[in-house]
Amino acid sequence: MTLAETPAGLRILHLSDTHLFSAGRLHYGQVDTLAALDRTLARAGSLDTLDLVAATGDLSDDGGEQSYRLLASRLAPFASDRGADLVYAMGNHDLRAGFEAVLGARETVTLRHGFRIVTLDTSVPGAGYGALDTDQLDRLAGILAVPAPHGTIVALHHPPVPASSALLAALELSNPEALLDVCAGGDVRLILGGHYHHALAAQARGIPVVVAPGVANSSDPLAAAGTERAVVGSGFAVVELPAEGEPRVVFLPAPGPDDGSEIFDLDATEVARIADAAGSGA
Protein backbone atom coordinates (compact mmCIF):
# COMPACT_ATOMS: atom_id res chain seq x y z
CA MET A 1 0.00 0.00 0.00
CA THR A 2 1.27 3.42 -0.93
CA LEU A 3 -0.04 6.50 0.81
CA ALA A 4 0.97 10.04 -0.02
CA GLU A 5 3.67 11.46 2.20
CA THR A 6 2.61 14.44 4.27
CA PRO A 7 5.49 16.94 4.50
CA ALA A 8 6.06 18.13 8.06
CA GLY A 9 2.98 16.20 9.16
CA LEU A 10 1.95 13.28 11.30
CA ARG A 11 1.08 9.81 9.99
CA ILE A 12 -1.14 7.86 12.38
CA LEU A 13 -2.20 4.22 12.52
CA HIS A 14 -5.52 4.33 14.34
CA LEU A 15 -6.80 1.07 15.88
CA SER A 16 -9.71 0.48 18.20
CA ASP A 17 -11.80 -2.15 19.97
CA THR A 18 -9.38 -5.06 20.06
CA HIS A 19 -11.34 -6.78 22.90
CA LEU A 20 -8.51 -9.11 23.89
CA PHE A 21 -8.92 -11.81 26.53
CA SER A 22 -6.48 -12.96 29.19
CA ALA A 23 -7.14 -16.67 28.73
CA GLY A 24 -7.72 -17.09 25.00
CA ARG A 25 -11.53 -16.99 25.04
CA LEU A 26 -13.41 -16.29 21.84
CA HIS A 27 -15.37 -13.06 21.54
CA TYR A 28 -19.08 -13.98 21.49
CA GLY A 29 -17.87 -17.56 21.29
CA GLN A 30 -16.76 -17.02 17.69
CA VAL A 31 -13.93 -14.54 17.17
CA ASP A 32 -10.29 -15.04 18.12
CA THR A 33 -9.55 -11.38 18.78
CA LEU A 34 -5.80 -11.89 19.18
CA ALA A 35 -5.70 -13.49 15.73
CA ALA A 36 -7.79 -10.57 14.44
CA LEU A 37 -5.25 -8.12 15.86
CA ASP A 38 -2.35 -10.05 14.34
CA ARG A 39 -4.12 -10.04 10.98
CA THR A 40 -4.77 -6.31 11.27
CA LEU A 41 -1.14 -5.55 12.04
CA ALA A 42 -0.01 -7.76 9.17
CA ARG A 43 -2.28 -5.79 6.83
CA ALA A 44 -0.89 -2.53 8.20
CA GLY A 45 2.68 -3.84 8.03
CA SER A 46 3.48 -2.08 4.77
CA LEU A 47 3.31 1.22 6.67
CA ASP A 48 7.05 1.30 7.23
CA THR A 49 6.95 4.96 8.22
CA LEU A 50 4.68 5.99 11.08
CA ASP A 51 4.70 8.73 13.68
CA LEU A 52 1.95 7.50 15.98
CA VAL A 53 0.00 4.35 16.78
CA ALA A 54 -3.22 5.21 18.62
CA ALA A 55 -5.36 2.48 20.20
CA THR A 56 -8.65 4.04 21.29
CA GLY A 57 -10.20 1.79 23.87
CA ASP A 58 -11.96 -1.49 24.57
CA LEU A 59 -8.45 -2.85 24.33
CA SER A 60 -9.39 -5.71 26.65
CA ASP A 61 -12.71 -7.49 26.97
CA ASP A 62 -12.12 -8.88 30.45
CA GLY A 63 -9.80 -6.23 31.91
CA GLY A 64 -7.19 -8.78 32.98
CA GLU A 65 -3.52 -7.85 33.07
CA GLN A 66 -2.61 -10.67 30.70
CA SER A 67 -4.88 -9.24 28.01
CA TYR A 68 -3.04 -5.92 28.22
CA ARG A 69 0.31 -7.70 28.11
CA LEU A 70 -0.79 -9.48 24.94
CA LEU A 71 -1.77 -6.14 23.42
CA ALA A 72 1.51 -4.48 24.35
CA SER A 73 3.48 -7.47 23.05
CA ARG A 74 2.02 -6.76 19.61
CA LEU A 75 1.71 -2.98 19.46
CA ALA A 76 4.93 -1.93 21.22
CA PRO A 77 7.32 -3.69 18.79
CA PHE A 78 5.16 -2.71 15.81
CA ALA A 79 5.42 0.96 16.79
CA SER A 80 9.09 0.76 17.79
CA ASP A 81 10.12 -0.86 14.51
CA ARG A 82 8.65 2.13 12.68
CA GLY A 83 9.91 4.80 15.04
CA ALA A 84 6.38 5.65 16.15
CA ASP A 85 5.01 6.78 19.49
CA LEU A 86 2.27 4.61 20.99
CA VAL A 87 -0.74 5.84 22.97
CA TYR A 88 -3.62 3.95 24.57
CA ALA A 89 -7.06 5.20 25.64
CA MET A 90 -9.48 3.51 28.06
CA GLY A 91 -12.78 2.07 26.82
CA ASN A 92 -15.92 0.94 28.63
CA HIS A 93 -14.78 -2.72 28.61
CA ASP A 94 -11.35 -1.84 30.01
CA LEU A 95 -10.68 -2.06 33.75
CA ARG A 96 -8.56 0.62 35.34
CA ALA A 97 -6.41 -1.62 37.54
CA GLY A 98 -5.29 -3.91 34.72
CA PHE A 99 -4.85 -1.05 32.27
CA GLU A 100 -2.68 0.99 34.63
CA ALA A 101 -0.62 -1.99 35.79
CA VAL A 102 0.49 -2.80 32.25
CA LEU A 103 -0.07 0.22 29.99
CA GLY A 104 0.47 3.04 32.48
CA ALA A 105 -1.49 6.22 33.09
CA ARG A 106 -5.05 6.42 31.79
CA GLU A 107 -4.60 10.01 30.58
CA THR A 108 -1.39 11.14 28.91
CA VAL A 109 0.21 13.94 26.91
CA THR A 110 2.67 13.08 24.13
CA LEU A 111 4.61 15.51 21.92
CA ARG A 112 5.68 14.53 18.42
CA HIS A 113 7.00 16.77 15.62
CA GLY A 114 5.25 19.82 17.03
CA PHE A 115 1.94 18.00 17.50
CA ARG A 116 0.47 17.26 20.93
CA ILE A 117 -1.50 14.05 21.53
CA VAL A 118 -3.77 13.95 24.57
CA THR A 119 -5.51 10.75 25.70
CA LEU A 120 -8.70 11.00 27.76
CA ASP A 121 -10.46 8.34 29.82
CA THR A 122 -14.18 8.46 28.98
CA SER A 123 -15.00 5.19 30.77
CA VAL A 124 -17.60 5.02 33.53
CA PRO A 125 -16.98 2.01 35.79
CA GLY A 126 -19.70 -0.59 35.37
CA ALA A 127 -21.37 1.18 32.46
CA GLY A 128 -21.23 1.17 28.67
CA TYR A 129 -21.72 4.89 28.07
CA GLY A 130 -18.98 7.48 28.39
CA ALA A 131 -18.51 10.68 30.36
CA LEU A 132 -15.90 13.28 31.23
CA ASP A 133 -16.08 14.95 34.64
CA THR A 134 -15.35 18.56 35.48
CA ASP A 135 -11.83 17.82 36.69
CA GLN A 136 -10.96 16.09 33.41
CA LEU A 137 -12.37 18.92 31.33
CA ASP A 138 -10.56 21.54 33.43
CA ARG A 139 -7.31 19.58 33.08
CA LEU A 140 -7.75 19.42 29.30
CA ALA A 141 -8.47 23.16 29.18
CA GLY A 142 -5.29 23.78 31.13
CA ILE A 143 -3.26 21.71 28.68
CA LEU A 144 -4.78 23.51 25.69
CA ALA A 145 -4.14 26.93 27.24
CA VAL A 146 -0.63 26.77 25.75
CA PRO A 147 -0.94 26.01 22.02
CA ALA A 148 1.27 23.34 20.44
CA PRO A 149 3.19 24.39 17.30
CA HIS A 150 1.01 22.22 15.01
CA GLY A 151 -2.00 21.76 17.27
CA THR A 152 -3.47 19.00 19.40
CA ILE A 153 -4.98 15.57 18.72
CA VAL A 154 -7.40 14.18 21.31
CA ALA A 155 -7.71 10.38 21.50
CA LEU A 156 -10.58 8.82 23.44
CA HIS A 157 -12.99 5.90 23.22
CA HIS A 158 -16.47 7.45 23.10
CA PRO A 159 -16.52 9.91 20.18
CA PRO A 160 -18.38 13.23 20.53
CA VAL A 161 -20.55 12.55 17.47
CA PRO A 162 -23.86 10.65 17.29
CA ALA A 163 -24.00 6.89 16.88
CA SER A 164 -25.85 5.19 14.03
CA SER A 165 -27.79 2.58 16.01
CA ALA A 166 -30.22 2.52 18.93
CA LEU A 167 -27.93 0.59 21.24
CA LEU A 168 -24.83 2.66 20.60
CA ALA A 169 -26.93 5.82 20.89
CA ALA A 170 -27.69 4.74 24.46
CA LEU A 171 -23.97 4.18 25.04
CA GLU A 172 -22.64 7.45 23.61
CA LEU A 173 -20.52 10.04 25.35
CA SER A 174 -23.03 11.65 27.70
CA ASN A 175 -21.60 15.18 27.59
CA PRO A 176 -20.12 15.73 24.11
CA GLU A 177 -20.89 19.45 24.05
CA ALA A 178 -18.84 20.05 27.19
CA LEU A 179 -15.86 18.33 25.57
CA LEU A 180 -16.34 20.20 22.31
CA ASP A 181 -16.54 23.53 24.17
CA VAL A 182 -13.05 22.88 25.54
CA CYS A 183 -11.64 21.54 22.27
CA ALA A 184 -13.05 24.41 20.19
CA GLY A 185 -11.59 26.88 22.66
CA GLY A 186 -8.11 25.44 22.19
CA ASP A 187 -5.93 24.20 19.35
CA VAL A 188 -7.54 20.78 18.81
CA ARG A 189 -7.28 19.79 15.15
CA LEU A 190 -8.39 16.17 15.28
CA ILE A 191 -10.35 13.83 17.56
CA LEU A 192 -9.76 10.06 17.32
CA GLY A 193 -12.36 7.68 18.74
CA GLY A 194 -13.67 4.14 18.64
CA HIS A 195 -16.62 2.38 20.31
CA TYR A 196 -18.90 2.24 17.25
CA HIS A 197 -17.08 -0.67 15.53
CA HIS A 198 -17.47 0.89 12.09
CA ALA A 199 -15.59 3.54 10.13
CA LEU A 200 -16.86 7.08 10.49
CA ALA A 201 -15.49 10.47 9.49
CA ALA A 202 -17.39 13.52 10.72
CA GLN A 203 -16.95 17.06 11.96
CA ALA A 204 -18.00 18.57 15.28
CA ARG A 205 -17.64 22.31 15.80
CA GLY A 206 -15.40 22.31 12.74
CA ILE A 207 -13.04 19.71 14.27
CA PRO A 208 -12.53 16.50 12.24
CA VAL A 209 -13.57 13.36 14.14
CA VAL A 210 -12.29 9.96 12.97
CA VAL A 211 -13.81 6.76 14.35
CA ALA A 212 -11.75 3.66 13.57
CA PRO A 213 -13.37 0.38 12.55
CA GLY A 214 -13.32 -2.33 15.19
CA VAL A 215 -10.60 -4.96 15.21
CA ALA A 216 -12.78 -7.49 17.08
CA ASN A 217 -15.85 -7.22 14.83
CA SER A 218 -17.82 -4.87 12.60
CA SER A 219 -21.17 -3.38 13.58
CA ASP A 220 -23.82 -2.83 10.91
CA PRO A 221 -24.84 0.85 10.72
CA LEU A 222 -27.66 -0.13 8.32
CA ALA A 223 -29.32 -2.63 10.67
CA ALA A 224 -33.07 -2.16 11.05
CA ALA A 225 -34.11 0.69 13.34
CA GLY A 226 -34.05 -0.29 16.99
CA THR A 227 -31.89 -3.38 16.43
CA GLU A 228 -28.16 -4.05 16.67
CA ARG A 229 -26.20 -6.36 14.37
CA ALA A 230 -22.52 -7.28 14.11
CA VAL A 231 -20.51 -9.46 11.73
CA VAL A 232 -17.00 -10.87 11.58
CA GLY A 233 -14.61 -8.30 10.14
CA SER A 234 -11.65 -6.15 11.16
CA GLY A 235 -10.30 -2.84 9.99
CA PHE A 236 -8.21 0.21 10.82
CA ALA A 237 -7.64 3.81 9.80
CA VAL A 238 -4.57 5.61 8.52
CA VAL A 239 -4.69 9.33 9.17
CA GLU A 240 -2.27 11.86 7.73
CA LEU A 241 -2.41 15.22 9.45
CA PRO A 242 -0.34 17.96 7.82
CA ALA A 243 1.21 20.81 9.74
CA GLU A 244 -1.58 22.95 8.31
CA GLY A 245 -4.86 21.99 6.71
CA GLU A 246 -7.30 19.10 6.90
CA PRO A 247 -6.46 15.47 7.66
CA ARG A 248 -6.54 12.76 5.02
CA VAL A 249 -8.14 9.53 6.21
CA VAL A 250 -8.05 6.08 4.61
CA PHE A 251 -10.09 3.23 6.10
CA LEU A 252 -8.80 -0.25 5.33
CA PRO A 253 -10.06 -3.79 5.98
CA ALA A 254 -7.93 -6.60 7.35
CA PRO A 255 -9.56 -9.51 5.50
CA GLY A 256 -10.16 -12.87 7.15
CA PRO A 257 -11.73 -16.13 6.01
CA ASP A 258 -15.00 -15.67 7.92
CA ASP A 259 -15.66 -12.02 7.06
CA GLY A 260 -19.35 -11.19 6.91
CA SER A 261 -20.47 -14.10 9.12
CA GLU A 262 -23.11 -12.89 11.54
CA ILE A 263 -22.08 -12.69 15.20
CA PHE A 264 -25.33 -11.37 16.63
CA ASP A 265 -28.59 -9.76 15.55
CA LEU A 266 -30.35 -8.26 18.57
CA ASP A 267 -34.02 -7.37 18.36
CA ALA A 268 -35.48 -4.17 19.79
CA THR A 269 -36.43 -5.81 23.09
CA GLU A 270 -32.90 -7.02 23.75
CA VAL A 271 -31.41 -3.70 22.66
CA ALA A 272 -33.70 -1.89 25.11
CA ARG A 273 -32.70 -4.27 27.92
CA ILE A 274 -28.97 -3.71 27.36
CA ALA A 275 -29.42 0.04 26.95
CA ASP A 276 -31.32 0.17 30.24
CA ALA A 277 -28.60 -1.77 32.04
CA ALA A 278 -25.51 -0.09 30.55
CA GLY A 279 -26.72 3.28 29.25
CA SER A 280 -26.78 6.66 30.92
CA GLY A 281 -30.57 6.88 31.00
CA ALA A 282 -30.34 10.31 29.41
Task: Describe the structure in your own words.
This protein has 282 residues and is α/β, with parallel strands linked by helices. The protein has one domain (10-278): Purple Acid Phosphatase, chain A, domain 2. The chain is 26% helix and 24% strand. The protein is built from seven helices and 14 strands. Strands 4-5-6-7-9-8 form a six-stranded mixed sheet, with helices on one face. It is globular and about 50 Å long.
The gist of it:
The chain is built from 7 helices and 14 strands. The protein has 282 residues and is an alpha/beta fold. The longest helix has 17 residues, at 65-81.
The strand count comes to 14
CA distance, first residue to last residue = 43 Å
Give the C-alpha Rg.
Answer: 17 Å
* Helix residue percentage: 25-40%
Largest sheet: 6 strands, mixed
Q: Could you report the average pLDDT, rounded to the nearest whole number?
A: 96
- What string, H for helix and E for strand, traces the elements in order? EHEHEHEEHEHHEEEEEEEEH
The CATH topology is what? Purple Acid Phosphatase, chain A, domain 2
Key terms for this structure?
282 residues, alpha/beta, Purple Acid Phosphatase, chain A, domain 2, 6-stranded mixed beta sheet, 5-stranded mixed beta sheet, disordered N terminus
List the helices and strands and how they pair.
Blueprint: E1 10-15, H1 33-43, E2 52-56, H2 65-81, E3 85-89, H3 96-103, E4 109-112, E5 115-119, H4 134-144, E6 152-155, H5 166-170, H6 176-184, E7 188-193, E8 200-204, E9 207-211, E10 218-219, E11 228-231, E12 235-241, E13 248-253, E14 262-266, H7 268-278
